[in-house]
Design a protein that fits this description.
40% of the residues lie in helices and 18% in strands. By secondary structure, the chain is α/β, with parallel strands linked by helices. Strands 2-1-3-10-4-11 form a 6-stranded mixed sheet.
């Protein structure tokens, strides 16, 4: 197992470097002040936080295709570790939008911080191979959700959808979720940290899940599919202030992103090529990655179900104001 991970671990090297820079710490080189006119050739630079993972392939590919330029926008991608990490940068104006899990915005709404989800980005797969999983090394003796009880398990952001759905899956399998020790590890660091023995199992998306499983590891459980099938993986997040103060920019971004996601859903090869280029992995590795369902539509995102589950497990005291939080553009 170690030999396999050592060999293919280099595939994540570039992504590890990217993840070292989080959105909240990034120095802004430019900010969006007005919406450019695509016909005039002038573009508005928009800073968007996104994770260095396979799902971001839709954004990278659409940028390469020129979809955002057609809407007068130039996207500057700011590497992020998760949706919750991006919120301080959104509130400070360092970035205008973030692509991240919805749990950060759920918490932010409960604090009345003015954070809004304006569109979906990608849903997990309701059946078959899902886009993320809890993985363990082949010799760890962890093969089912209940085996995670009493173990140290990594997630990219503690107190979000990852560990919440893992707890539910463990409980449903007869294990005690309260005995799990969750640790925060950036996705690109998962293969090396598992091999080093700093945790027993890890929640990870592709390509990092594939590195573990392809090297002889075990896919223990697909927690989204086991708890809320089809749950959104990533959403598009901004602030109420942005909606109020620059509605033209929000409209341009929303229309561009909706088009980009529709295009990505129909151009899988281009998305995989973008993944290979931006994560610096071989094309054959990118070809084996499980892709999500790219969509701008929040209708089947499962965010309300996630909120209810969070209350059940005492992650939050009450559900957010969904009418305020979810503002489909």
């Amino acid at each position: 197992m170690k030999k396999s991970l050592a060999t293919i671990g280099v595939l994540a090297a570039a992504a590890i470097a990217l993840a070292g820079c989080t959105d909240s710490a990034a120095e802004p080189e430019s900010t969006a002040t007005s919406t450019g006119d695509a016909g005039s050739g002038e573009l508005t630079t928009v800073r968007v936080a996104a994770l260095p993972i396979a799902e971001t392939g839709a954004l990278w590919a659409a940028m390469e295709e020129g979809i955002f330029e057609e809407h007068g926008l130039e996207i500057e991608v700011v590497p992020s570790q998760g949706g919750a990490n991006a919120i301080p940068a959104l509130l400070s104006g360092d970035i205008q939008f973030a692509i991240g899990q919805p749990f950060g915005p759920i918490r932010a709404d409960l604090q009345d911080l003015g954070v809004v989800i304006v569109g979906n980005y990608a849903n997990s797969n309701a059946e078959g191979d899902d886009v993320n999983a809890v993985v363990a090394l082949g010799d760890a003796g962890i093969t089912r959700p209940a085996d995670l009880a009493g173990k140290k398990v990594s997630v990219n952001t503690i107190g979000a959808a990852g560990d919440l759905t893992i707890r539910k899956a463990v409980q449903d399998d007869g294990g005690d979720p309260s005995t799990i020790e969750f640790v925060e590890v950036a996705f690109p660091d998962v293969p090396a940290q598992l091999e080093a023995g700093t945790m027993d199992a890890a929640w990870a998306p592709d390509p990092f899940r594939g590195i573990i499983v392809g090297g002889g590891g075990v896919s223990v459980v697909q927690p989204y599919q086991a708890t809320i099938p089809g749950l959104t993986v990533l959403t598009n997040i901004t602030t109420q202030a942005m909606l109020d103060e620059d509605p033209e920019l929000v409209t341009a971004y929303s229309e561009a992103m909706a088009e980009a996601l529709d295009w990505a859903a129909e151009n899988e090869e281009a998305v995989r090529a973008a993944i290979a280029t931006n994560l610096e992995i071989p094309e054959e590795a990118a070809a084996g990655i499980v892709l999500p369902t790219f969509t701008w539509d929040l209708a089947d995102a499962g965010i309300e179900d996630l909120g209810a589950l969070a209350v059940e497990f005492a992650y939050i005291d009450a559900e957010p104001d969904y009418d305020r939080l979810l503002q489909q553009q």
